Structures are given as structure tokens and as C-alpha cells.
Amino acid sequence: MQNLWNEHDAQAFDNDLDMRVYSSRLLGQDKSLVLHGGGNTSVKIEQENILGEKESILYVKGSGWDLETIEAEGYAPVKLNHLLKLSQLDVLSDAQMVNELKTNMTLASAPGPSVETILHALLPYKYVDHTHSDAVVSITNTTNGKERIQSIYGNKVVVIPYVMPGFDLSRICAELFPKEVTNETIGMVLMNHGIFSFGDSAKESYDRMIQLVSMAEDYLDQQRALEVESTYINTSLESENISAIHIARLRNEISAHLHYPVILHQQRTPQTLAFANHPQIAHISQQGPATPDHVIRTKQFPMLGAELNSSINSYISNYQSYFTAGAKTPHDGQQKTMLDPLPRIILDQKAGMITMGKSIKDAEIVADIYQHTIDIILRATQLGGFQALPSQDIFDVEYWELEQAKLKKSSKSSAGSSDFSGEIALVTGAVTGIGKACVDSLLTRGACVVALDILPEIESLYQRSDYLGICCDVTDEDAIIEALDKTLRHFGGLDMLILNAGIFPGGCRIEELSLKDWRRVMDINLDANVSLLSKAHPLLKLAPNGGRIIAMGSKNVPAPGPGAAAYSSAKAALNQLARVAALEWGKDNIRINTLHPNAVFDTAIWTPEVLAARAEHYGMTIEAYKTNNLLKTEITSKDVAELAAEMCGSLFAKTTAAQVPIDGGNDRVI
Ligand code: ZN
What we know:
- With 670 residues, this protein is of the alpha/beta class.
- Helix content is 42%, strand content 14%.
């Protein structure tokens, strides 16, 4: 394990809290120590309050902050004396604890203190670091984990048996730590959970964390359990994958069961494939999560879908019986309602791993955590057997009051525009103009967006996990098939389709129009859409809330102009195609509507020069030309995109085959 401390960098941080920030970020950089908001750190500082009184304040990581990117304001200042008194109570409910922590902060705007705050308070050291180190957890989660930890560390650490995070854990540490601490003690190991280090300075505490974790790694190495990749069979990425439509079917079934759409994300890597094909996978994958932190973030056991390819239904029935029956406590049979019964992980011999979430971010976090879990399980297996928490303990974390409260809060829906959380949209011709505006409008409403364009810039238009840009010629049917395949593997399905790609060639009268030019316009503006509609139909049919399509028509459909024969004909044919699709696909709960925009000038075609020339041609000012409609209003790409997005939403849930002009009112259309 590499010690990342850099004396030069550290000198830029000059007070106790800033030093806390610096070394916390070092811990956060190492994903084998902390993942996605896991782990926490603290520092105890003497301060003067507004009355001039001295008080000891514990600055502890606030919820919602990640160690890798934490700032000073990510720490919650809590009165230390009060925390120490709390640690002596016999009982304190989760709700009471949260209340005590919040009401004893010295800064109203600070984030909520970590649930491990009291634990940090009672360790009598200035700096306290806590991680869920993969190496340490690999060792604690074995049958004789405690003996192994003691043989590695001797008196260097105090070992605490597993207790659920929260007040009970603090209580047991308050009792055991003072009894077992020696002058050699530099840390504390929590069985099936993680490790603490502490010291007088940020550097001392950090160095000790690295030292302790390195000792665990050395032990694993001696036992040939550190580099586990070589110890199990390899399945090559070239082997047969499941067909992507199965993922969309699975998403449809799960979403129907949950009554909300979810995202599925396939991670087919040498690691996940090999793990799914491990000879003992049925056993080792069903032992439960590695740490309570992982239970919270992955929510459920991995589900093994060995039959995924041939029978989605067997997975689904397996899932249904587990998650409805699983809502009884294994201990006392008491029925509890699970607020979030979403399964999180499927391992499949062909698919590798598929993770799920209400958003792509959630699904990716689960994937990250499970990749670390795979290493932990394989290492522990190498040591003689992975042993997770007893099911009652996992259940307790799963139904934890604090976590349930969090869920209640986050399930509140946002008011205003449509909410496309858990849904996937595909937009063609998306790099500029109306297409790009549609991408923005859909992202704003929470959809995952796949954006196609012939320009390679599409791939880097946004760097965010809910955006997938694919450089693709829409007239190439194979490229369309490939793009849809990527869409399903990345996000799990397709709910909305915006047919926007098109070209507008310069004006040309029919007697001068070559068949070649005509065909090129037809190819892009019409045929490409036929092909995309046809290939997307089986996917849209599986959309949990019904498939939605918007065809970008044109004012030229109801009111053609001279010189645009190919463009107008292609758009008119697209319009007719949409009407037939509405007739054919209504029974599949797919609706398709057409927009007829006119005079949208903030697109790539309308350079300032072209705009000036056209305005002059009509003897108008640019301003008058831009607002040459009944409402005297300018129509922007964003206006069109917002309407397109809303037409995919609930307001238009009962409308199909409509043609809606967005042109400021045009007397020829009326
Ligand atoms: Zn922890």
C-alpha cells in the first residue's frame, strides 16, 4: 500500500482542520480504502465560542461528502463534551442520536454529522481516520478472522466484535476500548466492518492507517490471497454474450414489479465474467455483503441469474419470492415493509455482472462496490472461506431506521416539468441545434440520454454518467443496430426516441434537381428513420411507462415552399410514416407525435451571413425576419426541445399521431 503523503503539498495546509482535509483526501484517493462516500475522519480542536469560552469541538465528516473531494465545510463541528456524555448512556435510539448530533453542532449550516460521530468522539486522540479497507475486511470476513487479525497486529490494535454502526457500536467501543488499549495501540479493527487509526497529527494518523493496511496486505500476500485474479478460471471477453434484448426484458419485468422504471448497467469485464463462472459461485456469491457499509450502498445480496439467457422469468420469480419473503426478519418472523425492494446485482455466466439503480449513478456505484466485493470474497475464499455477517445482522442494517428515513426523503418527486428518472431517451442529430437542445431538455428531466451524430464531437459533448454520445451514420443500418445494442447494455432499455437528424440542402427547383441529390435527402431525412423505427420497436414496446417517439417534422409539411422539393417531400413522408406507426403501435403502448417547427434560427444552418441575406431578400430587418409570425415571437431550439420533452411526459400521455406546429402562428398553416 502506497503512502501518498507529500510534505510539499501538506505545507499548503496550515491549520488543524485543513490538515484534516489534506490527509482525508489522500485516503479518499485509494479506492481499496474507501468507496463512494464510505469511511470517515475527524479532528478535535479547542475553540473559543462567541462568549469567549473555550470548548472542545469534534470536526467529523458530514453526510453527503466524499473523502476524496472533501472541503473544510464538509466537516460538521459538534460539541465534544456532549458527545462523551452521550457515549455513557445505556440506550439511545437512532432518531434520538441524530437529533443530539444535529442540535449540538456549533454551525447551523454544517452538514449532518456521520452516524459514527460518537465513536470518533470517544477515541482519545486528536486525529481519527476510519476506512473500510478491502484487505482488512478480506481477513475479518473469514471463519477465524479474529485470530488472524490478532496474529497480524498483536497489541497494535484493539479488536471490536461486529455490532451494527450507530449508537450500539459506539457504546461497545466506549466499554471495550479503555479496557484493551495499551501503549502500543495505534488502531482499532471492527470485525466485518473496517479499521480505525489515530494520532496526534494528521500525518501520524494517516501513516498508521497505511502501516496497518500494509500489514494486512502483506499477510494476504504470504497466504497467496492478495492477487486473486490468477487463482480462478478465466473466461474470455470473446465468449458468447447474452443478447441485449434480454436486458431490456429484464428491466421491463423489474420495473413493472416496482412500479417505477429502473436503469440496468452491464459490466462485462474479465473480472466479472470469471467471477460469474467461478466453480463455487452459487455458494460464495450468496453469503452476503462484505461490510455494513456495502449493505447500505448495494442494498441486497447479489442474485445469481445463471439462467438469464434462456429464462428471464425464472430470475424474476426467484427475485419475487426472495424479496417478498425476505421482508420477514429471519429472527422473529416480524413483517416489515421494505421501502426499497430493488435488487441490485445479477451475476450471469454469459453477461458477467448487471447492476441496477434508480439512476445510472446508483447502478455504477453498485458496480464499483461489487467489484471490490469480488476481490474480498475471493481473498477470503483463498484463506479458507468467506464469512459475512449472520443474516439477522444484515437484515438489521437493511431495515435501519436511519436508512429508511433517508429513502423516504429521497423518494419525494420534484414538481414542475416531467420527471424521467430511470428512463432512457435516444436523440439523433444531437451535436448541435434542436437535437442538442433535446439532449439538454431530457437530461434536465432526469433521463439518461444516448445522443447520435455523424460528427465525432458527439462523444465528448458531455462528461457525465447519464450521457452516452455515439458517433454514428444513421443511414447505416448496422451502425444503428450497434448503437441500440450499446444503449441497452449501458442503460438497460429505450423509452423515448427523438427522430431529429436531417439535412436541409440549398434551394433547388425540380427541373434542376438531380436524382442523386434527391436520394441523399431521402436517405437521411426519411429512410434512416424507417430503419431506426423498425429496429427500436421491440425495445420501445418494453418501455415500462410505454414508448414515446417524437418525429421532427417541418412547417413545410402543411405549407411547402418552392425550391425545397426533396426536403419537403421527405418531411411529408416522415409525417405519414409517423401516422402509420401510431396506428400500428398503439396496441404496444407506443405513442408517436410530430412537431412542425418553423424559422428556428439558432441552428448550425443559420449563420449570421445566411440570416442577413435572407432578411434582405424579403426586405426586412433581421429582427423582423426572425419574428415573422402571428405572435411576433422568436422560436429557439430550446423552445422546440422543451415541447418535444414535454410531449414525452404525462401531459401528453393520451395523445398519439398529433401534429403540433411550433412556429409562432403561421397563416399558411392555419
Ligand atoms: Zn464504517
